Amino acid sequence: MRNCGATRPYADVMPRYEFRCRACGETFELSRPMAEANAPAECPNGHDDTVKLLSTIGVSGLAQAPSSAGGGCCGGGCCGG
Ligand SMILES: [Zn+2]
Fold first, then answer.
1. Which of 3, 41, 42, 79 has the fewest CB atoms within 10 Å, i.e. is most exposed?
2. Which SMART domains has this protein been placed in (predicted)?
């Protein structure tokens, strides 16, 4: 039991990395610790000849976050005059 973990905010956060298999062309994503970002990844089809793609880590979540301004209704005409 190792429960003596430091309360690191990123302890449970594993960024997603996108890989592409050069053997079959499959692209896939893996969630792994940053420490293993450059570790070899295996294609879902079993190939290990993969390359890590550059991805915008963490940006997609922010981009899709709903903004406080401008709801989906107001401005659409349904709550206006
Ligand atoms: Zn493959």
1. 3
2. CxxC_CXXC_SSSS
